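Job type: complex structure
Entries:
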Amino acid sequence: MMNKLKILLSLIAVNCLLALSAQAQMVVEITRGNPDPTPIAVSPFSWSGSGILQEDVSDIISADLRRSGLFAPVPKEDMLSFPKAPDEVVFRDWRILGTEYVVTGRIEPQANGYLLTFDLTNIFGQSKMFTKQVSGGAQQLRDIAHRAADEIFEAITGIRGAFDTEMVYVREVNRGGRPVYELMRADIDGARSRAIRRFDQPVMSPNWSPDGQEVAYVSFETGRPAIFRENLRTGARQQLTNFKGINSSPTWSPDGTKMAMVLSKDGNPEIYVLDLSTGRFTRMTRHFAIDTEPNWMPDGKSLVFTSDRGGKPQIYQLTLATGQVDRLTFDGDYNARSRVSPDGKTLVMVHRSRGVFTIATMDIRTGQMRLLTETSLDESPSIAPNGAMLMYATKRGDQGILAAVSLDAGVKYNLPSQVGDVREPAWSPYFD
Amino acid sequence: MFKSVKTGLGLACAMVVLAGCSSTDTDDTAQQQMVEQTQQPVVEAPAQETAVPLDNVVYFDFDKSLLRGDTRELLIQHADRLRGTGTSVRLEGHADELGTREYNLALGERRANAVRDFLVLQGVDAATLEVISYGEERPAVPGSNESARAQNRRVVIVK
């Protein structure tokens, strides 16, 4: 009896915690914004179905646009009217507020879901730019909102939106005095976070397949580090390596047929490429130094990686056809864990400057480096598929949190903090 | 007792000098070999009662896999007890939180390898020693401060 009561009480406590964390998730703290963001109003959408919608779709769109740093959404309480369609937009009212664009929309019930019809109106041009529709299932209101935000963002900026994307990351929580390591998945705004899998040994280095259907990661569950791939939809998973020593840093090739990784079975860490269809491993580096953290150039013809063959960790490029290795970074005595932008022109990496670890970008052609962050324990940068922003891990006090910064350093925000230590974000590719 | 502290200090000084001399282009392994050659004459008092368990953690300097002078005495005692016994030993290498996770995994392995190589030089059967690196994934002490970091840069000898 007492036991049952205890369980019930702890369930209530857990539920309270869950409710708290759900609330906390709504707050994205923007730490640096574009100096001249475009004023836009997302007028609350109409709903023609019965009951109350579980999500405020127009609010989610506003939050997406605000997080990009390029837009300043008008707060609902400042709006003089709530138009539901372009012919209800009174241009004069919005001009008074300085609003440049107004989004209107109507949500209707559909068999097993919802249909959103939304319009973008240019106030100064006094013209409707488009009317579009997005539909989704009963649990997909947030997806509908993110897809609409992507359309609005692209119509105004000319850049493809990346709001309808996800991330995987690692979370370490303390359960009854023991660490539990969770491979987590969430929307890119931090909402709908859930564990893909829980481990009682460390898990690290999550990496998406280019089709967004699978993740590869390193797990210590066998007592040694091993590389696994896991299908996110079916939960099916496969252990890819079980060599003596380090098995780590899996990264899928852009065409999805190969995986670069690090194995130390030869005595020290070397870069290997695994052909996923034949299962054949090809050794790519031969050096007594540490070679690690491979990442593919978008054309799949070369890898960038970290090596301390010059005495300190620096970034090198390996041309796969010839085996030629060229050093890319020369500024500073610690450059590591690089990622390449989708256009192949920019490297992002962890850079140590004056004893502090920050995220830096480098123009690959000119070699010019630029610091993006100024906190002190920044790591694991992961670039959005549109190349506009990157997500990284940093510390607030002793707690690991996730943050994002635009590649031009103009916009920066922290994701809502969670219970536990959160790290190693990996931004998903586009899902279509 | 005083004597061994002094020896330790002397060794530590030698380490510092050596580390200072080595340019950034010198590989850690090379440094380590140099140290091993110059530090051979370390002679220690025979192990006392074997019942007393030995400390099983050795610590390292930041971004280094060189064995520190103050840890050699301990490793020699371990070697004395392990030699010829066939006992399986796991050498778990760790790094502090500074620097990237994958690089730290490699650094942890390098540290554990340095301990393995030293034990093998002292006559321990290499086949009984298994190296595994956890990088910075399993800190001994949580926290973002130098005291925690110093305790996390370590190799743990697990029998």
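Summary: The helical segments of chain A are 2-24, 57-67, 91-97, 141-157. Residues 1-26 of chain A have pLDDT under 50 and may be disordered.
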